[in-house]
Specification:
349 residues; alpha+beta; Porin; 3 domains; two-stranded antiparallel ribbon; 4 helices
Length: 349
């Protein structure tokens, strides 16, 4: 009975003492009660101090305290966490930065410890590393990939010099009707790479069609006069027609050095390329369309130069690409037709 009375008295005194201590302390506390009667009490001057505890690995702290308990006689140990040794108890933060935008699951995994300043510095490093790796991956993966582009645009004829007896009005063109169409299979290997720019070489195989639609009711024919038998003529069409055109099909090899510019996030901003092309005329024909859908075609060389070569330019803004092509040699052979050069321009899809 005396032992029971003494135990109750000790409990009352302990509870009173603890209540007095907590009553005299101003601040916030966090009490964690476990099922095995283990209690963890965390005190901080304010709520912000308790929130900052999430930066620390409490499991690591408890493990080290448990190991130290086996080596102390009274079963009590203390760990002091200050500015000198506090970093070793900070929680590891793992940043997973996705760098493959094509969705095959590859990523960069970076672990850091530190405060918000370290986090900002790490994020900046990650962004720079991610951008650099994205550009490297873009160039290395796509360098040898064959790209298919569709070229759609317009044609016009440039008179290099007056050639009697040809009159410029006889081969005047309809601006909208004279269309250009091409299919290009190309590669763009990287020659040099910087932080925000890349020099590559565009080359490939292209087949295209120049359609020159005449504004007047004329068509191209071999001369029938005995005086000038070896030349072309632009002769009037006898029957009423809806349209008349000359089409030239070419097989060409473009070679264009190209500079591509990127922003800090690795996205393409613009590109510019200037180069040339060389090719071969594979076919040419005239087409006259009459009423009710009747058409007349005449496949012939028409004294044209089979070899085609000239200059080519690429201009791009964002993902939109434009092209321009200019023939350096005339369409027709010297003295057998007007001195005309083809100029084509349009958009690349």
């Amino acid at each position: 009975m005396k032992r029971l009375t003494a135990s109750l008295l000790v409990c009352l005194l302990t509870t009173f003492a603890a209540s007095t201590v907590w009553a005299n302390i101003s601040g916030d506390s966090l009490v964690i009660q476990f099922a095995n009667r283990t209690r963890m009490v965390i005190y901080a001057p304010d709520k912000e101090g308790i929130k900052k505890l999430s930066r620390y690995d409490l499991n690591k702290i408890v493990r080290e305290m448990g190991m130290k308990l086996d080596s102390v006689p009274n079963g009590q140990t203390t760990i002091s966490i200050d500015s000198q040794n506090g970093d070793r108890y900070l929680r590891d933060t793992v940043l997973v930065i996705r760098t493959n935008r094509e969705g095959n699951g590859r990523s960069i995994r970076i672990t850091y410890k530190g405060d918000e300043k370290d986090k900002r510095d790490t994020n900046q490093t990650v962004r720079e590393y991610s951008t650099e790796r994205l550009q490297r991956k873009r160039s290395s993966k796509n360098d040898w990939k064959v790209k298919t582009d569709f070229l759609i645009g317009l044609n016009t004829l440039i008179t290099q010099s007056e050639t009697p007896p040809y009159n410029a009005d006889s081969y005047a063109l309809r601006p909208i009707g004279s269309r250009f169409f091409g299919i290009s299979f190309s590669q763009r290997p990287t020659l040099a790479r910087g932080k925000n720019a890349r020099l590559s070489l565009h080359y490939g195989l292209e087949i295209n069609w120049n359609n020159f639609m005449f504004d007047n009711d004329v068509t191209v024919r071999r001369a029938t006069t005995l005086q000038f038998p070896e030349r072309v003529e632009f002769v009037p069409i006898q029957d009423k027609s809806e349209k008349s055109k000359l089409t030239i099909a070419n097989l060409q090899l473009p070679v264009v050095p190209r500079v591509t510019f990127y922003n800090n996030d690795g996205r393409r901003v613009a590109h510019l390329g200037i180069g040339g092309f060389v090719g071969y005329r594979v076919d040419s024909y005239t087409m006259i369309k009459y009423g009710r859908g009747n058409k007349e075609r005449d496949h012939d060389r028409f004294f044209q130069n089979d070899l085609r070569y000239g200059l080519m330019a690429h201009i791009g803004i964002g993902r939109t690409s434009f092209f321009a092509k200019y023939d350096l040699n005339p369409i027709f052979m010297l003295g057998q037709g007007p001195d005309l050069r083809a100029l084509s321009f349009g958009i690349s899809l």
